Amino acid sequence: MPSNSGRRAILGGGAAALAATPIATPALAQGAPASTLQAIRDRGELRIGVAPGEPWFFRDQRTNQWHGIGWGVGEAIAKELNVRAAPVETTWGNAVAGLQANQFDVMFVLDATPQRALAIDFPVQPMFYYAQGLLVRPGLTVRNWEDANKPDVRIGVILGTSPDRDVTARLPNAQIERFPSGDETAAAFAAGRVDAISLFHPALVMLRARVRRGSVVLPQPFRAAATSAGVRREPDKSWRDWLGLTLAHFYVTGQTQKIYEDYLTFRGQNPAEAPPVMREMWQSQG
User: How far apart, in Å, are the Cα atoms of 234 and each of 27, 34, 45, 120, 247?
Assistant: First the structure.
């Protein structure tokens, strides 16, 4: 999932945290098939790497079933191939190594960072987009970043994250309060010690569900980031290329957005109150 340590802290593993351990030089895993796409068809199963972290992947303890936008897209991909989706548990930090070792065929919501791209492949087409946003307290109106650039506005961030660096530079007049973890940042917001929290917006949507306070906004100008799906590097690029075309089709037809909204509904959230993962829709919600 996404490459930012702030998202990792909020999402319990975060969709985009870079692995802390060095990434091995890319090579075909011993025993790996020449074509992942053919192997998926032969076994009748798409192996999907799953790592707990909402809203990307979530396992319902009552049913032991997986949910989330990453899992939902994976199921849709499997349906297109007429195979079943099979979860393979991993961690965000081990996702690259797991792909290299042929433990699973794809890891969704894995950001295509330069470091990861040295070791595995990513489709050219993005999976979806998220933006840096704010969870603001009731009564605080922020439409543009400048609306928050005031001495009396206190913004909580997770120390050392991308949002920390960004709002420090973007909002020199605001009070930036730094916390060592997502839980402590959330507790400060719930207690009214900060007026807003800055993270990437899907993480903020789930955080709002936890604290039951405030609203998620995407101030303008938007700061967008794309996420992707990681696959094993191999000479035959048919799996990577087909996956990219299919992800693009899901995105432009609104299927990815619907999967996201269905998950929010499943978790008791109102999708109308959550910024979309289609960046073309952000302006209409501004």
Answer: 8, 7, 19, 9, 20
DSSP code string of 86-151: EEEE--STTHHHHHHTTS-SBEES----HHHHTTSB--SS-SEEEEEEEEE-TT---SBGGGG-ST
Helix, strand, or coil (residue 60) = strand
Name 189's Cβ contacts closer than 8 Å, sequence gap at least 6: 135, 137, 156, 196, 197, 211, 213, 214
Entry pTM: 0.80
pLDDT in tens, 76-106: 999 999 999 999 999 988 999 999 999 999 9
Alpha-carbon dihedral 172, 173, 174, 180, rounded to 10 degrees: 40
What are the tens digits of pLDDT across the range 105-119?
999 999 998 999 999
Distance from C-alpha of 161 to C-alpha of 240, rounded to nearest angstrom: 30
